[in-house]
Each structure stands twice: as C-alpha cells, then as structure tokens.
Amino acid sequence: MVLDPHRTPHLKKAIxxxxxxxxxxxxxxxxxxxxxxxxxxxGAKHVYSMDCDRESLGVALQQAKKFDIKxxxxxxxxxxSDFDIKQKADVIICETIGSAAFDENILATLHDAKRRLLKxxxxxIPATIELWGAPATFVMPKKTNQMIETxxxxxxxxxxxxxxxxxxxxxNRFETGIHIVKTFVVKKxxxxxxxxxxxxxxxxxxxxxxxxxxxPETHWKQCILPIPIRHVKVKEKIRFELIxxxxxxxxxxxxxxxxxxxxx
Length: 264
What we know:
Elements: H1 8-18, E1 24-28, H2 34-41, E2 46-51, H3 54-66, E3 73-77, E4 89-94, H4 106-116, E5 118-125, E6 128-136, E7 148-151, E8 163-169, E9 178-185, E10 190-204, E11 207-210, E12 222-232, E13 237-246, E14 255-263
Parallel strand pairs: 1-2, 1-4, 2-3, 4-5
Antiparallel strand pairs: 6-8, 6-10, 7-12, 9-13, 10-11, 10-12, 13-14
C-alpha cells in the first residue's frame, strides 16, 4: 500500500496542498505514520496520530524518534472515537478506505471525528469517496455469502460499463452507512458470478486515485460480492442492492455488508 504509485504520491500532493503552516492535524488510522510525517513536512504544528495497531504505531514512534520529530506528534493507540483533544484540528486525514470504499467504516469514523475533533471550518482528506461497480464473471469462491477483497478484475470480465453507485463529499453532511439500489442492462451473454466493486477517491480537488479495472492496478485492486452462478443474456436487466453500515455489535470498528443481485 505504501509503495502504491497511484495512492501515496497523490496523498502527499493533497496533504501538501491542504495542510498549512501551523495547522493541527488528526491522522486517523495512521499505521506506520507516513501521512503523519507528510503533514509535518507540509508545515503542521502538531499531529495527533491514531491507530488501533500497536505494532504499526511502534514503528511510527521509532521513526519519529530517529528523525527528532516526536515532540510534534501525539501517538494514540485506539480508535479515534475514544480520543479527545483540547484544541480542535484544522485538518483530518483518514485513509481507512477499503476495496469496497466504505467497508472499513470510514463514514462512521469521520461522522464522529467531524463532530468532536475538527474545527467548524476544518478540512478533510479525502474530499470525496466514491464507490463504483458492475456485474462481473470471475473464478468463484467456495462461499457465496462473503465479500472477497483485493481481487483483480479485467475489463473483459464486466457485463456492462461500470457506474457510480455512491458518492460522499466529506465536507457535507452524510450518514454513517449507505443503501444502494441500482439496475444494470446486460451487454453480453455469460456466467454472472456477482458484483465487482472498487473505490474512486478524490483526496483534494483534482487529485484522484481510481481503482477501476479500466485504470492501472492499485493496491486495492477490486473486491467481489459473489452470488450463485447464473447465466445471463444480452439486454436482460440485473438489479443490485447493497447495504454497508456499522455493525451493531461493534459500531466503531466493524462493518456489516449485505447484498442482493438478481435478474429482474
């Protein structure tokens, strides 16, 4: 992920544009701390660097000490919903984006963080999160009720042109989950195995990472939502329904994903 040429350089460019000298920044899901270090390089006065992964934060802490910047960083092991700050942030960076865009609970995370951690006129990276997809054929997994992440789908595997299924502008008000109902018209005959999904992210205006199978491969690749195989013909209509929302058993960290795909 760190070495993805279609993700990391774009994130750095967005951070350099959005973060101003003297800003306070929250880096949610900081991992190894790379985006925290980018924010400091862009001029941030202080960064609150948060992650649930102790090992990753340990590596970030070692690097902060090595380069003598630890005094500018507050590390927090845990979910951002359990963290509070006296001085609200000018910028939130949150790259908890999965191969189905919203499957790492980014909407619930940002919904809480905007309310508690960000200034009223604060900025958020990413600026826009989109979910795209199309019905597809692929090598079927053993189970047809589980999402399969980071699968590589090719253009020839799609039954029609992809469409945008959902779009969230993070500066605007949004819900903590999404509910999508879309209809596709089949353009070729074949074995329908499920839906292929992927994110398209605008980190800042005009700075975009697109995980589409029509674009160069990213670390996200695509994800698939399988169904029992059925044969489809040209001009048949396929109805797709998708719900992605916080899991009621652990709303802060777990996501529930439900889907249906059937011929109308």
